[in-house]
Amino acid sequence: xxxxxxxxxxxxxxxxxxxxxxxxxxxxxxxxxxxxxxxxxxxxxxxxxxxxxxxxxxxxxxxxxxxxxxxxxxxxxxxxxxxxxxxxxxxxxxxxxxxxxxxxxxxxxxxxxxxxxxxxxxxxxxxxxxxxxxxxxxxxxxxxxxxxxxxxxxxxxxxxxxxxxxxxxxxxxxxxxxxxxxxxxxxxxxxxxxxxxxxxxxxxxxxxxxxxxxxxxxxxxxxxxxxxxxxxxxxxxxxxxxxxxxxxxxxxxxxxxxxxxxxxxxxxxxxxxxxxxxxxxxxxxxxxxxxxxxxxxxxxxxxxxxxxxxxxxxxxxxxxxxxxxxxxxxxxxxxxxxxxxxxxxxxxxxxxxxxxxxxxxx
Amino acid sequence: xxxxxxxxxxxxxxxxxxxxxxxxxxxxxxxxxxxxxxxxxxxxxxxxxxxxxxxxxxxxxxxxxxxxxxxxxxxxxxxxxxxxxxxxxxxxxxxxxxxxxxxxxxxxxxxxxxxxxxxxxxxxxxxxxxxxxxxxxxxxxxxxxxxxxxxxxxxxxxxxxxxxxxxxxxxxxxxxxxxxxxxxxxxxxxxxxxxxxxxxxxxxxxxxxxxxxxxxxxxxxxxxxxxxxxxxxxxxxxxxxxxxxxxxxxxxxxxxxxxxxxxxxxxxxxxxxxxxxxxxxxxxxxxxxxxxxxxxxxxxxxxxxxxxxxxxxxxxxxxxxxxxxxxxxxxxxxxxxxxxxxxxxxxxxxxxxxxxxxxxxxxxxxxxxxxxxxxxxxxxxxxxxxxxxxxxxxxxxxxxxxxxxxxxxxxxxxxxxxxxxxxxxxxxxxxxxxxxxxxxxxxxxxxxxxxxxxxxxxxxxxxxxxxxxxxxxxxxxxxxxxxxxxxxxxxxxxxxxxxxxxxxxxxxxxxxxxxxxxxxxxxxxxxxxxxxxxxxxxxxxxxxxxxxxxxxxxxxxxxxxxxxxxxxxxxxxxxxxxxxxxxxxxxxxxxxxxxxxxxx
Lengths: 362, 600
Known about the structure:
Chain A: One of its GO terms (biological process) is cytoplasmic microtubule organization. Chain A: One of its GO terms (cellular component) is cytosol. Chain A: This is WDR73 protein. Chain A: Pfam families: WD40. Chain A: InterPro entries: WD40/YVTN_repeat-like_dom_sf (IPR015943), WD40_repeat_dom_sf (IPR036322), WD40_rpt (IPR001680), Wdr73 (IPR042795). The complex is a heterodimer of chains A (362) and B (600). Chain A is built from two helices and 28 strands. Chain A is mostly beta strands. Chain A has one domain (8-219, 231-262, 294-306): Methylamine Dehydrogenase, Chain H (7 Propeller). Chain A has a four-stranded antiparallel β-sheet. Chain A has a four-stranded antiparallel β-sheet with strand order 2-3-4-5, with no helix packed on it. Chain B is an alpha/beta fold and 600 residues long. Chain B folds into four domains: 2-210 and 391-448, Ribonuclease Z/Hydroxyacylglutathione hydrolase-like (Metallo-beta-lactamase, Chain A), CATH 3.60.15.10; 214-386, Rossmann fold (3-Layer(aba) Sandwich); 455-502, no CATH class; 510-593, TATA-Binding Protein (2-Layer Sandwich), CATH 3.30.310. Chain B has 17 helices and 31 strands. In chain B, strands 6-5-4-3-2-1-23 form a seven-stranded mixed β-sheet. In chain B, strands 7-8-9-10-11-21-22 form a seven-stranded mixed β-sheet, covered by helices on one side. The longest helix of chain B is centred in the first third of the chain and has 21 residues, at 94-114. At the A-B interface, β1, β4 and β5 of A face β12, α6, α12 and α13 of B. β5 of chain A pairs antiparallel with β12 of chain B.
């Protein structure tokens, strides 16, 4: 490690969103403490280039917070606005919130966007973009994908149905293209200018298998051609596939991460690309660790890949005792600092860490 | 309805000094008397003229309570008691009483001797002030006077810190001072019972903070010490006698053992003397683990930590030294600092806040050239680090305390109002209590619903419970009686008994109303008409026609007479007692409407 900061939230969070102005947003869902959305200012120590181990300002500050009636599992900031959108189980609509940090420290609920979600346990996955006007792409299942204009709540796009599988995540690749990842591993590409054409980018065998998948995309440039950035898929068995969307007939690379088996389910599977390091990605959700890989050395053999770094802090951090070891619920990369990540676990811990590159590379 | 005023001549959106005035059921209590550490002039003291425009403070205030020895809670106390003038009791815990004068004297020395200030309290004033102090134990109910009582609860935070409950009759206020809800290496966590005060005044300095874990901070501390010692440097840690020093010693001792380090660690002898003096106080205030450790061995029998001798400072090679005083403003720690400051391999780690004017404060602010006595310039090349292990409650801790105490209202001090709106909402939503955040100098009024205990006579109780449906243990039952207030006792008795006790005769109030009715017939015929009319309408009531020609409706009497001047008009006299007022009024208005023609 170059640096490791560990914090404890009042309750565990399943999401970490980085926002402009160096803000970090989490949503804690505690049984007795209620559901809160917290926008945090990281400690100044994290912002500076040099390490200042004993700097007095080492704490996260809660800049503003909001209280939600239902648990919040998914949250996205709406770019170029002071709004954010959340979704969670037991709530069949999306909540839109206003953050006005200068005036008050309360995140206010301003409106709701109805979705067609009916099932209690699943919730809409969301992605936002503000190319034309602020939009939110949402859906819990493949046949329930829509794009809604955030302010007017008008529906601007409904994806053609190609099945009813549950979605793990979805993303805007650019202002016209969206990518959907089903829990089965199926990837579908959509173009909002052609709602009827929902293309299957990666298909899956018909035989049902218990493996579940999620995907990670790089933050695409807005309104550019279909990016050449590969899409990463991660399965609950630790399989990693990299796909170039322009050529989906074969995988760019295939590797296997060393993960404990049997796995602990796919609820917290998370794979993400480093915004500043070419080819680097991180995975989590199998246990109390976060792995960082350099995918540039991978081929299509499906061999086991050696992680560049493994963050084990969450596994050791807890109060100990007989309770289940903590499970990392989510991780994300710092937007500016290239080797800094944030991760959270089921015991309420929140870590910010920066690793040292093993000798050889810079 | 009683009022609890809460107003902060110091605290309340003003981080830096605490001084709160509470008025509860006619008693006035001052909570803490702190000094603002950022100012150099009179602004550092609270403005006591707010309290009473004329009249002596001693008469106005019933007592002063100090929560702990930090200067932003007790720093203005000698100024208040000796220069402004207060002779009443000052309450604090035993450790606070022992440690306060030392810190106050230290602070006085720096301000007067080093900075040459004149409007400041003297050493004698500190001594005179402490003579007015009454020390209290934890959970001991102290009667300030016949009506006012206070009780201290463990607050964690620092040695001797306490939360205080102030009670007058059945109204109470709990003031937390600074507290901490998670135990650390040498202090336990704050605790209070479900005392249900009308108001909980809580500090909220760290309410919007998510603190990094102690483990992390300790790891960094050890890393820095280790790195310095590995490269042959010396580490100076200025400490106050007790408290954090113990914690750091234990930490280093364990680390040295684990890593098999050989560099010597020293604890200066000045500390040993003071430490033994506080030893007894410390023991009851620390947590279980420490108590066990100290029972097994003398506090200074660490394997790797030895007593320091002045001469050791010149020894070559790495070492770690704990020395007093904590802010590097005088004494041994300053001496050692001067010797080691010029070498960049060395390090000084400041474990806490340093008052302005001290060397500690200067180097933490970044100054690297210091002017010493005799105009000598000291160049500071050694590394300067700051570390704070002082613990305050965060949002989670505040919610925990509220859950423990179950107050009816909450008041937050010590933060900026704009940034506490979220916490205020959280508290109001979760506990359904009102949450206040006054600004400095603002008066907050909190309405309470006091419970007034009243003795009820057994006879009355038996009688009242016999009336109506069976009493339900879970529902309140309405009872009627007469309340007798004598001196400070309240009794509920039956009206008859009340009259007897007071030697009063019972009076009956009877109303009579005249209703004129046009009816040329004879009186007894009119009466019959009235009777039939009323019988027809008032089916649920007992309407009777008596042989003497009068009508009764329940206990109301109606009689008819002829008008003295006009034979065609009959006068009905309707008469009822006070108890039957409602029915009586109703009957009267009914009769005023006249009799129906068809009635025979």
